[in-house]
């Protein structure tokens, strides 16, 4: 019995440092984008279809995200001004830009991760 307790503590400590895979809650997550041009910029969102992040020692160690490019939406042009909004969204989806008919999804793969200072909050949620 005296030997069992240290073994259990060792195993528990090892599992706390182990790698953990977390599934991104796609319905709760989005990518916010900003596109710039010579005389201004536009902002918008695009949905995440799926994704996983890997934590090692409680730090981000990798992962991937599948982005639904057909969901790209401009958020800085109000819905009350539908012609420019639809024109920009159509342009972004067209073959001269993202070509979403041919490439309906994009995949972002995190190969290496490093700590950086975050200046804006991220809207990414995951479930354990």
Describe the structure.
The protein has two helices and six strands. It is 20% helix and 43% strand. It is α+β, with helices and mostly antiparallel strands. The protein has a domain at 33-114: Lipid/polyisoprenoid-binding, YceI-like (Lipocalin), CATH 2.40.128. Strands 1, 2, 3, 4, 5 and 6 form a six-stranded antiparallel β-sheet that branches. The two termini are 33 Å apart. The protein has helices at residues 4-16, 82-93, and strands spanning 19-24, 30-37, 40-56, 59-74, 105-110, 126-127.
How would the blueprint of this fold be written?
Elements: H1 4-16, E1 19-24, E2 30-37, E3 40-56, E4 59-74, H2 82-93, E5 105-110, E6 126-127
Antiparallel strand pairs: 1-3, 1-6, 2-3, 3-4, 4-5
Number of strands: 6
Rg (CA only):
21 Å
The CA-CA distance between the termini, in Å, is 33 Å
Shape-level CATH architecture of the domain at 33-114? Beta Barrel
Helix count equals 2
The chain-level mean pLDDT equals 83
SSE sequence, one letter per element = HEEEEHEE
What is the CATH superfamily of the domain at 33-114? Lipid/polyisoprenoid-binding, YceI-like
- Tell me what portion of residues adopts beta-strand conformation: 35-45%
For the report, how would you describe the main beta sheet? 6 strands, antiparallel
The CATH C-level class name of the domain at 33-114: Mainly Beta
Net shape: elongated
What oligomeric assembly is this protein in?
single chain
């Amino acid at each position: 019995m005296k030997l069992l307790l240290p073994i259990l503590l060792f195993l528990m400590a090892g599992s706390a440092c182990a790698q953990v895979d977390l599934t991104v809650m796609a319905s709760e997550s989005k990518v916010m984008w900003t596109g710039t041009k010579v005389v201004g910029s536009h902002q918008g969102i695009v949905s995440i279809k799926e994704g996983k992040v890997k934590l090692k020692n409680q730090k981000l160690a990798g992962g991937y995200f599948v982005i639904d490019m057909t969901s790209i939406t401009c958020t800085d042009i109000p819905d009350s001004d539908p012609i420019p909004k639809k024109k920009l969204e159509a342009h972004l989806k067209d073959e001269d830009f993202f070509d979403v008919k041919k490439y309906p999804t994009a995949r972002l793969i995190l190969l290496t991760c490093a700590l950086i200072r975050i200046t804006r909050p991220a809207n990414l949620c995951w479930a354990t």
